Structures are given as structure tokens and as C-alpha cells.
């Protein structure tokens, strides 16, 4: 029999449920849910949405913690022809209201545990017709312009006679909201075609199979977290869902209990695990693959990660929400090229151009450009910002994604991240990559996390400020860190100030929040 290729996101669930309906698809809070049940619940939810009047292309927002209900909602919306967007449950009322209005969401799926933010956000929503609540709805404030529905009722098969829409790969599948330089989040538009292509490209280079069990510690609102779900369902694997990495003891317990084979993390998570390894020998031999993106994984982490995950392949990767993933390093090269983020993911191209748009020589810094089916359509309602990121390609109608991030490429075509475009520090007439300084400081014994920023300086243009956190019981001075930098960096790259912090401020996605760091003035004492 000829196997029909996957074209739409929802087809992956249908195929996995048909192949193995009783297999555990999702584990949440020690509850196991089968593929058959996921398909049944998602289809019932899709029927409900269509019955209530949802049309193909309508936006439906999900505002809740990682949960069974959020996963059912994602696939139910997909099957209904709607466009899903997952909003981080830590999002406050003002931003929540902005996103709902920006995307013109018709329905919001949420949980009663978030009622305090909901009450403030929903007062001025312009397009909402219904709010579907997981949990008790009696305590939720009622508004005249939309109705409240219990989530459990929405996934019951109530015999609705509906016609499912004709969805094609070019149709919009999801909006993924990401931080914007203007202070307002931007909705990245992704089609079924781009998300299906991306899922299979990731599956190919990560060497995933139906035997893999992926642990999810990242929010589904974060594209890195969302694709763990999409990949797991596509391969027919099992996804072990955690709320976040806050309760580490519980997560470590579940790793030992459920024995995941894939661990996706970010550098801040790995820094915490390295500390635990140094203190108590933390180690997990069940993990066969670990992945990293969102921020550069320091080469100095790799020896410690090998101790924590002695049987794991280590995948260093780079991406941005606008194309999900751009490049990866084969794990067999992790020791040969520990500072590289590799080459383009399967089915795509990457190349470097100068700020003026010209090709750059090998070894010279340039801005990374990305070509492939995984590139976004653009930002919702933001034509000018879209035009800044999407450049004309060589073929008629083709768009190339400009990452605005600086890289170097070696003679073999391997990429080395140099810094975000807006991270580049201009000091004493020179351009300085924060990453280059961070890599040197990470080599100092006792360093846990590092962030380098440029701050305005009347004489130098910008002076270089370093924020560090240390592993427990380690003592370092500003002079020691500056001395190490002097040994390895040009004079104009030596930091003028080092600030020691008990912990780094983090974004909801677990990244070091450099915007918050900028609020800590170098001339003020640091509070512990």
C-alpha cells in the first residue's frame, strides 16, 4: 500500500492513533492518556468549535499551563480549521488583552486557576465570543459580550452534526507570539505546510523514532516547547509533560520513574543541573539525546553535561521563532567543533551577508539569512516589521528570512554565533560580540551563568558590563575576572565592571532576561 505523505498538522495524530491507539501519548501529573483518547477528545473539541460557528482561519487562543486540556485544544483547533495560539500562563492581563485583540481571537481556552488575570484582561476584549474554562466556572466573572463554557462539556460527543472544513497546506495553522523591540509582542504566522515540514526536518536530524519518550519542561507557548509535542505525536512517541523547571526534585523523580530518552533544555536549565551534579552527582543514564536552543550553549558546559547524561548525544542548535530552527551541529562533532552551531537543518539553506547585503568572506562576520519552507509568512498586522525580516529571494515571490544575528562561517561551512544584532556592543569605535566575552568568562572555575551588556558611555560610546552568578561556595573577585579577560581578549573587549548576582533574572521561557539586567545599575549595590 502506498503511504500518503503528511500534509496537515492534524494528520499526524490521526496516523499515530490508527497505528497504535492504546499506546500512551501523553503523561501529565502521573496520568497517562492514549493516542486513541487524544484523537477522540480532539475530534470532539473540533466538532464543538465548528458547531459554535468557528470558520476556517478564525483565531482561538489557549491561555493555560502545560496540561492535557491544552494539548487536546491544540489538536482540536487544528482539526476544526481554526488557527491556534498558545499564550504563556505567566502573561499578565495587559499583554493578554493586547494579544487577544491583536489576533482578533473568537474563543479563549483557559483555566479557572488564572481567573485573577482573566478578570482584568477580558473587560476590553473586542472580538471574543466564548471563553472555555477548564475547572469550575462558577467563580469566573461573567461578561455580557461572551459566554462561558466548561471545557469538559466541550469535549463530550453531544451528537453535533457538523461539516469539517477543507484545509490545505497553505492555510494558516498557528500564531506564535514573540517579544518585539517595540515592547509589543508580534504574532509569527505559520502555515500547516511550514510546521509539518519543520517537524519532519527536526525528526530527521534528531534521529527520533516511535520508541522515544520526550520530556517537556518548557511552556507550549514557546516554539521550542510546542514542537516537542508536534514531534512526539508525529513519530507516535510519548510526551512526558511538566509545568516548568521550577520544581526540580519532582522533575528528577519523574525522569527516574518514566525514563524519557530525549531531554530538551536551555542553558539556564543546564546550568542548574551542572550545579546539582557538582553537589550530589546528579546523573541520568536513560537519556539518549539532549538538545539546546534559545541561547548559545557554552562549550564549557559540554564536559559537565556528559557527566549528567553519560549515554546522550548532545545536539547544539540555533533558531528563531520566525523559522523555528535554522541550523544544528551533528553530535559526533561536539568535541571537534564545540563552539559551532553547525549547518542548515535538512531541506534548507543558510548564508551570511554584510549589513549592506553583500556576501562576506570565510571567517568574516555577517548576518545570517535563511531560505526554506519553514520561513514564516510574516508578522500578523505588522507589514513594516515583516518587510524588515523578509527579504526578496532569487525566485519570484520567494522570501528569505533575515535573522539580524551575526555569525561567522569557517572553511567547512560551519556556523559560529557572534551575537544578536541589537546585542552587538560598540565601544571605542569597535564592534564587540558579547558572546565572545561570555565564552571566556565561562571558562573560569566557579562561574555558573554570565551575561554581557553594553551601557551608554560618554567617552567610549558604550562600556562593557558583566553580570555573573557563581556556583555555591565559590568566591571570585571583579579583578580576577577582568584579569582572565585580559589574557584572552583585545584591550577594547575588557569589561569595565563586573556585577555579582545571586540569581539571573529569567524570562518565562527560561532565558536570561537582559532587559531586566539593564535595570540593575552598575553604581548601585546588588541586593542578595
Can you characterise this structure?
The protein has 528 residues and is α/β, with parallel strands linked by helices. It is 29% helix and 26% strand. The chain has 15 helices and 27 strands. The strands form seven sheets. Strands 4-3-5-6-7 form a five-stranded parallel sheet, sandwiched between helices. Strands 12-13-14-15-16 form a five-stranded mixed sheet, sandwiched between helices. Strands 17, 18, 20, 21 and 22 form a five-stranded antiparallel sheet that branches. Helix 1 packs parallel to helix 8. It is globular. Residues 522-528 have low confidence and may be disordered.
Mean pLDDT, all residues: 92
Summarize the biggest pleated sheet: 5 strands, parallel
Overall body shape: globular
Cα distance spanning the termini: 65 Å
**What's the arrangement of strands in the largest beta sheet?**
4-3-5-6-7
What's the Cα radius of gyration? 23 Å
Query: Helicity, in percent?
Result: 25-40%
> Are there runs of 5+ residues with pLDDT below 50, and where?
522-528
Q: What class would the helix/strand composition place it in?
A: alpha/beta
Topology:
Blueprint (H helix, E strand, L loop, with lengths): L8 H11 L4 E5 L2 E4 H17 L7 E5 L4 H13 L2 E5 L5 H11 L3 E5 L3 H7 L8 E5 L12 E4 H4 L17 E7 L7 E6 H15 L6 E4 L6 H13 L2 E4 L6 H11 L3 E4 L1 H14 L8 E4 L9 H7 L4 E6 L8 E3 L13 E2 L4 E5 L12 E6 L6 E2 L3 H7 E3 L6 E11 L5 E6 L4 E3 L2 E3 L1 H9 L4 E11 L3 E10 L7 H11 L8 E4 L13 H4 L11
Parallel strand pairs: 1-11, 3-4, 3-5, 5-6, 6-7, 10-11, 12-13, 13-14, 26-27
Antiparallel strand pairs: 1-2, 8-9, 9-19, 14-15, 15-16, 17-18, 18-21, 20-21, 21-22, 23-24, 25-26
Helix pairs in contact: 1-2, 1-8, 2-3, 4-5, 7-8, 10-11
